[in-house]
Amino acid sequence: MIVVTGATGQLGRLVVEGLLEKVAPAEIVAAVRDPAKAAEFATRGVQVRRADYDDPASLAAAFAGADKVLLISSSTPGQRLAQHEAVIAAAREAGAGHLAYTSVLAADTTKLFVAPDHKATEEAIRASGLPFTFLRNGWYTENYAQTIAQALASGSFAGSAGDGKLGAVPRADFAAAAVEVLTGEGHEGRVYELAGDEPFGYADLAATITAVSGTPVTYQDLPAEQHRQLLVGAGLPEPVAAMLVDADRGIAEGELASTSGDLSRLIGRPTTSLTEAVTALVKG
Fold it and tell me: Is the N end or the C end of the chain the one with fewer CB atoms within 10 Å?
């Protein structure tokens, strides 16, 4: 039995959909905080079980009989590590034979703002003794949906990434990698650095938006502090602005790209191109 946590989230839904193409619905557990949101999966034969990262008892019940567990990382800053540790404990107590975890690129060395919780989670999983796979995901192109919409309205977008490049691809590519790890063989003990085959910079993104939409779009590169002030002035909370500026620093320093080729090897095809990804976002 394969348990997917966070199964009603944007990535989790794609993973469950991918699993449904490879295994019987009854072999899939959609572990979710609100089972009502997973009603569609239940009607298709998927087992839907309540699993709240903050309620260890619910995790124990949700993981009963689990052979494999996919821990999709929590999105709650400040609570993420404790939540992950609860999932790890529940998986171990359930006797799961494999725990896969969605981490971040180069979690053990990157300076990205979000990295410490991922690094600590990886360490906790290693210490648990559970056979593991770390899916170190890069950025999603969907992260730029609002940027693209704003650029189409104004003719430009700003950032502080310089000439840096990132290997962002759609969530569907990362979901396909998770499905392979959960249904394939030989992934235990592996650490996969997952990113697009062809890294791109923000100038490339602007050019692609222009080509796809027919609307001229340019990229304006700013010093980091000016970028932060611009974001705050646009109404973003300070912590969010700081995270976005840090992400651009990471892009500038090469922390959000990888030449590993792990993603395309896992999914058995080239990763989705920037043109395809932007087309999907422009056309909605």
Answer: C
